Amino acid sequence: MEAAAPVQHGDFMSSYHVRQRYWARALIGFSAMREAQAGGAHRALAALESQGYIQQLVTQNVDRLHQRAGSRRVIDLHGRADMVKCMVCDYQMMRHAMHAEMARMNPSFVGLQAGHAPDGDADLETDFSSFRIFDCPRCSGILKPDVVFYGDVVPAERRLAAQVALAESDAVLAVGTSLMVFSGYRFCRTAHDRGIPLASLSLGVTRADALLTHQWRAPLTPVLEQAVRSLKGAERSL
Questions:
Q1: Which helix (H) or strand (E) holds 216?
Q2: Where does Zn(2+) bind (predicted)?
Q3: Which end of the chain has fewer beta carbons closer than 10 Å to its terminal beta carbon, N or C?
Q4: For residues 211 and 34, what is the distance between their CA atoms, to the nearest angstrom?
């Protein structure tokens, strides 16, 4: 089955049918994201932070796996998928609580099976017209995952916090990203303009290739784990 197009912010906000389809699919697919475990690359980055080599981690991921791995200085640039927020009164609640309410309201959807898709979605196509959406318990406004959808913008406080961290940094390392989304690429451009080292570790090309001072096209986990071991060894030899 062909992958579904990303949800557009404007469509989510303006169309009840889009929200029905989104939440029905998420009711089935989000368990995969909720149950995801941090990998070796996440743990290596957390170790580098604890060793004092990472001052700020800025991630475009919304799965909170960096925090689960032990990273503390994290800016979730695109938000966090485990929270929902009211678009009217800013009420917030944990997403699993909202899903529990929608499961109670839509028992016929709970048992449906579908393959998992990115970002907590599911490859489910059916008649969504009967699906009941759980609205804000405070004001009945639209609840939306606290993440940046396509067509939305990164909240100013997150962007400014990342810019402040960048201004205090000696170098920037982009890990496992193509940097095709401008919200991340902008920081690489700023680093280049400042003249500080800018490196990339990924398997493929990036939007910032022409700006890089160092580039490694290699698997993330072995390289980062070797960096942790090497830096520990260097510390012991001092």
A1: strand 214-217
A2: 86, 89, 136, 139
A3: C
A4: 36
Task: Record the pTM.
Answer: 0.88
Place of tokens 């902008």: 186
Buried b (16+ CB within 10 A) or exposed e, 5-39: eebebebbeeeeebbbbbbbbbbbbbebbeeeebe
Please say if 96 is a catalytic residue.
no
What is the DSSP-derived secondary structure letter of residue 143? E
Domain ranges of the chain: 9-36+80-147, 40-78+154-237
> Which CATH code is given to the segment(s) 9-36+80-147?
3.30.1600
CB 22 within 8 A of CB 7: yes
Catalytic residue of the set 9, 42, 66, 78 = 78
Of how many residues is the chain composed?
238
**Is 188 marked as a binding-site residue?**
no
For residue 116, give the H/E element and its range.
Answer: strand 116-117
86 is in an annotated binding site: yes
Under 8 Å between Cβ of 1 and 114: no
SS3 6: coil
- The two beta strands, 74-76 and 57-59, are parallel
Sorting pLDDT into bands at 50, 70 and 90, what band is 2? very low
**Which CATH class, in words, describes the domain spanning 40-78+154-237?**
alpha beta
Annotated binding residue 139 = yes
